């Protein structure tokens, strides 16, 4: 299973309710009333609501089974480290993280293992991690809490709305998109995240010199990413001869990736730099 934003889960049986309390050796469940939130103090099911135009989405919201530990983390830690992408306010990133350290946006983190490893290895970099997968959100919060990683914030919702409505120009020091949904069918290619329009929006929020780092095990998508990034005027390849980059040591080898490599899959990394245009008026999305 891909550690990605939006790779659909296998169908899951309906859970019928959520954990309401925990007693040693006793499982207590209650049935939610219609409209009652899954986690009263946790992420909202549809944070942006109908405030923004309908458009082709690059992700599929997934509501698979949440473990008791993940549910506990969502309830306990969401008010402190969670963020609903409602599009209704502009984020002050130093205020959000409590410091002026560089901020990297990660779109799609799966169950969060790789994100937690990167946060632990580089405590001086803040990671704003976005996904729509509730179990993954709870798992990453749990990992950050257990490991004492105060440099992680978990955002729930649509990364496009986050970039366009809630982040200010030149506020990000990097962008990571690891194993996004490849949307392999030709008629679905328009749903792929790495497109010229997305890169134009992302460029307005990235500081000059910021790195966009993509990784995928789907070779046709890797070729499309390379083509789109190479052609975009706001980015340049960090590889002197062009092409794909070797996997940097700071990107952990995920369980999913290891399984793919065992099956002979090829994983391609792309590292492109946001370029500064001289005498080029700044644009806002």
TrEMBL record:
EC identifiers of the protein: 2.1.1.33
Highest taxon in the source lineage: Bacteria
NCBIfam families: tRNA (guanosine(46)-N7)-methyltransferase TrmB (TIGR00091)
Function: Catalyzes the formation of N(7)-methylguanine at position 46 (m7G46) in tRNA.
HAMAP family in the record: tRNA_methyltr_TrmB
Family listed: Belongs to the class I-like SAM-binding methyltransferase superfamily. TrmB family.
Protein name, as recorded: tRNA (guanine-N(7)-)-methyltransferase
Species this chain originates from: Streptomyces griseosporeus
């Amino acid at each position: 299973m891909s550690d990605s934003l939006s790779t659909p889960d296998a169908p899951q049986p309906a859970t019928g309710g959520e954990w309401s309390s925990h007693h040693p050796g006793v499982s207590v469940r209650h049935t939610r009333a219609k409209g009652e939130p899954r986690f009263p103090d946790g992420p909202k099911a549809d944070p942006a609501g109908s405030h923004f135009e309908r458009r082709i989405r690059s992700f599929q919201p997934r509501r698979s089974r949440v473990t008791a530990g993940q549910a506990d983390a969502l309830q306990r830690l969401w008010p402190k480290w969670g963020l609903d992408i409602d599009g209704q306010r502009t984020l002050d990133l130093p205020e959000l993280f409590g410091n002026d350290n560089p901020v990297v946006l990660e779109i799609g983190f799966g169950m969060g293992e790789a994100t937690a490893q990167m946060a632990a290895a580089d405590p001086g970099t803040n990671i704003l991690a976005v996904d729509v997968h509730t179990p993954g959100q709870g798992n990453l919060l749990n990992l950050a809490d257990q490991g004492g990683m105060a440099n992680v914030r978990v955002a729930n919702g649509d990364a496009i709305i986050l970039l366009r409505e809630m982040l200010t120009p030149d506020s990000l020091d990097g962008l990571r998109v690891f194993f996004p949904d490849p949307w392999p069918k030709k008629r679905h290619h328009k749903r792929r995240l790495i497109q010229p329009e997305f890169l134009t929006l992302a460029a307005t929020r990235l500081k000059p010199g910021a790195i966009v780092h993509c990784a995928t095990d789907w070779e046709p998508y890797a070729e499309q990413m390379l083509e789109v990034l190479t052609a975009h005027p706001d980015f340049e390849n960090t590889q002197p001869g062009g092409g794909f980059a070797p996997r940097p040591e700071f990107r952990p080898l995920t369980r999913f990736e290891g399984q793919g490599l065992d099956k002979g899959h090829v994983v391609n990394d792309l590292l492109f730099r946001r370029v500064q245009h001289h005498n080029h008026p700044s644009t806002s999305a």
